[in-house]
Amino acid sequence: AAANLRPGAEQKVVFITARVHPGETPSSFVCQGIIDFLVSQHPIAKVLRDHLVFKIAPMLNPDGVYLGNYRCSLMGFDLNRHWANPSPWAHPTLHGVKQLIVEMYNNPKINLEFYIDIHAHSTMMNGFMYGNIFEDEERFQRQAVFPKLLCQNAEDFSYSSTSFNRDAVKAGTGRRFLGGLLNDTSYCYTLEVSFYSYILGGPASAVPYTEEAYMKLGRNVARTFLDYYRLNSLVERPLAPTPKTR
């Protein structure tokens, strides 16, 4: 087993959730890309599995998805407004995930380092993130590191569309609630990806998203943890071919 899974080992945890809004199908493809990459034999995936623990809840609103709802659960709740006090009866998935996150937060052997909630956006292009606003300037700057690194890895990710806010209307969202609950070593983001296209180069060159392109964004999110934790030197490189002698 990886060193970080041995009993008593300290764990750095990355918690990822998706599809809290059932109509936002791209969210599932991005999440699928993350999962497929992390369980693959890719040399980067092996290093990530050795150093980090990924907890993934790929569908927070299964009943809404089953019913073909756009935003709500079976009982008509927008689950992404109920993180502050989820009911085990009315919002069981949120209740379960939140309980798990709080348990991990209270465990001195676990550092919950990232929470990323994946959504799709109906009016903006590209992938981008929402983060939180903090009074502490240094914490605010540190929070910008991951999206900046992701921007270098993913051509369809836009740092200029990434924003940090504290709108009242977003108070019950996973990112906002957990950003307030967890301490300043945890980073909470909403990862948004456009329903339709991303722009490369000039404004005229919009490229329609495909399922594969969404999954590629997921793979790039996973790879970015390698840069964030400066683990690049641990990746096994394929041996360089020996130069042919003339």
Write up this protein.
Keywords: Carboxypeptidase, Hydrolase, Protease. GO terms for molecular function: metallocarboxypeptidase activity; zinc ion binding. The protein has a single domain (9-236), classed as Zn peptidases (Aminopeptidase). The chain has eight helices and eight strands. The protein has helices at 26-38, 43-51, 62-67, 92-105, 137-143, 145-153, 174-181, 211-228; strands at residues 11-18, 53-57, 110-121, 127-132, 163-165, 187-194, 197-199, 206-208. It has a six-stranded mixed β-sheet, with helices on both faces. A two-stranded antiparallel sheet has the order 7-8. Helix 1 crosses helix 8, helix 2 (43-51) packs across helix 8 and helix 6 packs across helix 8. The longest helix is centred in the C-terminal third of the chain and has 18 residues, at 211-228. The chain is globular, with a radius of gyration of 19 Å. The protein starts with 10 loop residues before the first strand and ends in an 18-residue tail after the last helix.
